[in-house]
Specification:
The structure holds two protein chains of two kinds. Chain A is an all-beta fold. Chain A contains no helices and eleven strands. Helix content of chain B is 0%, strand content 52%. Classes of the chains: A mainly beta, B mainly beta.
């Protein structure tokens, strides 16, 4: 069974940092691009970042570019999101998901998301 | 960015009746190379994470009941629940994956 377990959330002061983790099991981690999606409380879904299978290509939403860094560890079968210079508007549930890759019309790695975790809540507040 | 707009924002339907949710993209998400529409639908039940329902605009994910169907092409898409069940109460999101991913704002579906 495919499982994704997010962790690392908490209450962080504005300007602070936190590192989220996503532990994967039940599938061949190296075969999939991975992504982070977030959801502010009571709001809709927002794509945050995607990393390709070998970690060599990374993509970010404009809202987090330069502040967040996505990475993955093959041996630990884990996905990470390093979040720096946090702002109140970063407060959200963060979900990791597999990306089901398909032929890309452009330069972005196209594919739909397969989220399986419960998410982890990051609250940015003083 | 290709922006997604859903309508309505909320919807109340009686049990057993049909529910229809619309999704419109600011540009076509049809790729002529493979004749596919790069459009997915997700369901998010209260207090739960989102779940993939449909991809390629009309292909149901494994295990999704056949009362859920997706249709449309180009810029206009529809999610239809043919006979609403109590467990279908949720927020539904469309998402384009033609380029940088973008979700619609969501449609909240309730029982009338």
């Amino acid at each position: 069974e495919v499982q994704l377990v997010e962790s690392g959330g908490g209450v962080i002061r504005p300007g602070g940092s936190v590192r989220l983790s996503c532990a994967a099991s039940g599938f061949t981690f190296d075969d999939y691009d991975m992504t982070w999606v977030r959801q502010a409380p009571g709001k809709g879904l927002e794509w945050v970042s995607t990393i390709n299978r070998n970690g060599g290509s990374k993509y970010y939403a404009d809202s987090v570019k330069g502040r967040f860094t996505i990475s993955r560890d093959r041996a630990r079968k884990s996905l990470f999101l390093q979040m720096n210079s946090l702002r109140a508007e970063d407060t959200a549930f963060y979900y990791c998901a597999r990306v089901i890759r398909v032929a890309a019309p452009g330069s972005f790695p196209s594919g739909w998301f397969d989220p399986r975790g419960q998410g982890t809540l990051v609250t940015v507040s003083s | 960015d290709i922006v997604m707009t859903q309508s309505p924002d909320s919807l109340a339907v009686s049990l057993g009746e049909r529910a229809t949710i619309n999704c419109k993209s600011s540009q076509s998400v049809f790729y002529s190379f493979n004749n596919k529409n790069y459009l997915a639908w997700y369901q998010q039940k209260p207090g739960q994470p989102p779940k993939l329902l449909i991809y390629w605009a009309s292909t149901r994910e494994s295990g999704v009941p056949d009362r859920f169907s997706g249709s449309g092409s180009g810029t206009d898409f529809t999610l239809t629940i043919s006979s609403l069940q109590a467990e279908d109460v949720a927020v539904y999101y469309c998402q384009q994956y033609y380029t940088t991913p973008f979700f619609g704002q969501g449609t909240k579906l309730e029982i009338k």
